[in-house]
Amino acid sequence: MRIARWNPFHELEEMSERLARLTGRQDPLVADWAPLVDIQETPKEYLIKAELPEIKKDDVHVFIKDGILTMEGERKNETEDKGKTFHRVERSYGKFIRCFRVPEDADEKNVKAQFEGGLLTVHLGKGEAAHPRSIEIKLA
After folding, report:
1. Domains of the chain listed by start with CATH number
2. pLDDT score, position 4
């Protein structure tokens, strides 16, 4: 069985991009592209992985504000040098941003981010409320 990836905003993003190309305007609040992301849940944490090839660690920022986890940064466009000509450019360049609402059972103070080999990994720990506990029932 194959897992199908569905992006409910894909058509809206395409329409926005076409409109921006037609008008020659860029909305400063809209990112140039969005990296692919996987989100996993374990009993102890949420794990978010984002593919960011050829991006420097200093060009990536992760923060939580008002219950929203934000990953943003920029992949800088390569320039043509003497003796180097591009025949095709299909990868996305420019600013990116991905935002996710932090689940209620997550501990916003227990966040760790790693960036290695073009993969951003964010560990968002779960709070005490997420762990089941036993409650003693007393007979009256």
Report:
1. 31-78+88-129 (2.60.40.790)
2. 62
